[in-house]
Amino acid sequence: MNNANLYRLFERRFPNDAGAVFLDGIDGRQLRYSEIPSRSGRMLSLLQRHGVKKGDRVVVQVDKSIEAVLLYLACLRAGAIYIPLNTAYTPAEVGYFLGDATPRLFVCTPAKKDDLEAVARDRGVAAVLGLGGAGDGELVDALEPQPASDEVVQVEADELASILYTSGTTGRSKGAMLSHANLASNAQVLFDTWQWRNDDVLLHALPIFHVHGLFVALHCALLGGSRVIFMPRYDVATVLRKLPEATVMMGVPTFYTRLLEHAGFGRETCANMRLFVSGSAPLLAETHREFEARTGHRILERYGMTETGMITSNPYVGERLAGTVGYALPGVSVRVADDKGTELPRGEAGVLEITGPNVFRGYWQMPEKTAEEFRPDGWFITGDIAVMAEDGRVTIVGRAKDLIISGGFNVYPKEIESAIDDLPGVKESAVIGIPHPDFGEGVTAVVVPDGRSEVSEQSVVAALSDRLARFKQPKRVFIVDALPRNTMGKVQKNILRDTYRDIFT
Known about the structure:
Elements: H1 6-11, E1 21-25, E2 30-32, H2 36-49, E3 57-61, H3 66-78, E4 81-84, H4 91-101, E5 105-108, H5 113-122, E6 127-130, H6 138-141, E7 160-165, E8 175-179, H7 180-193, E9 201-204, H8 211-224, E10 227-230, H9 236-242, E11 248-251, H10 253-260, E12 275-278, H11 285-295, E13 300-305, E14 309-313, E15 327-328, E16 333-337, E17 350-355, H12 367-372, E18 380-388, E19 394-399, E20 404-406, E21 409-411, H13 413-421, E22 426-436, E23 440-449, H14 457-464, E24 476-479, H15 493-499
Parallel strand pairs: 1-10, 3-4, 3-5, 5-6, 9-10, 9-11, 11-12, 12-13, 23-24
Antiparallel strand pairs: 1-2, 7-8, 13-14, 14-15, 16-17, 17-18, 18-19, 20-21, 22-23
Helix pairs in contact: 2-3, 4-5, 7-8, 10-11
């Protein structure tokens, strides 16, 4: 009987070389591919000792470490459902997730265990274990006497491998249910699309509680039997030191802008690199241009969601256009539709909808919300506003929830942000709609200067007067030092809307 367990897919690709390194930690600790079966097998035995069975949930809020990756692989082997949480979540927020997911086991950092254990107990969680970023904690201590199980639990392709909670910026966080088949299909497609090589070395500085760092980066490396330079967090000095050893780097826009701030960063540093990937937030066209001029490399921008993994990618071979997210991945279908689900002509803006083997199973314990997000014909409504070119290339112009309706006209923030970002002295901008007594919503711009020339509300308004239709022009412009961002680099427009909510009243 075929076992669709994702771990089996990875296991078949492990290198035959007993010395081949998987995770190469900055602290000198390593995990070899030949060690994964036994070390994850001991983790599996420990999970089972704590009553974790197929279909049980395991919630994890820990710092990035080799042991955290082994825990993920052990959960796959157990047929358990792995649920990683952002390490920044407060005890109150963690309490919500524990109450919603009802896990058999909760793993957290030792430093927070005293506080979180009480929260877990109140939510009926049977067991809590500590796991530290240095490979310490009671979970690790308990591994020594455990036998190394060789079991890989039989699962069907549509059985759940993970639940990832959305950020919850627009309401209660939703748990996106991802199956073994969802994750396997996306990993294989990305591996092929980005022409992954057996000798690739991945520089990994992303968190592993997110699609990008856990599923995109590590899954590609596992399929390639690749060495991963495993950084606990993003640090520019360490990246500059390690880049000459790497061939692939995956990051968020902030990673690349911070590299460009260093005068010594350039072609020599990137001589061994073949691919830089960016995602999780839009990359400015200026960053594209400057990065290519400095390094000779054009960053490959892709697009995805928690609910789907990756959806589109700029081509590995071919033109990578700044401001676009490329073409639908093989096996994935995309369309731009109106609010009824009717496909729109090419070039018109509408909601991006998708279907494919990567699309999630729905939201955990939210059947009504799940039904709302799918069309009757099975297409998933992403909530992103997009334009599709005649050749199928996709450009994301904003979130549906970020759409501004001013005086009865639809205003897409991305268009205005692009115009502002092109102005001299502007580093970046965010455009939001604020309640307005006459227009319904007033277009409002929040601008970060680059320090090279003076930028003011008056200068921005004047510069846009002949570039944008009047209804698109900002009614107010605020100059700030920085935009609020989440851990993945996305601008938190909900915070901006709250900050400036009373400016027109």
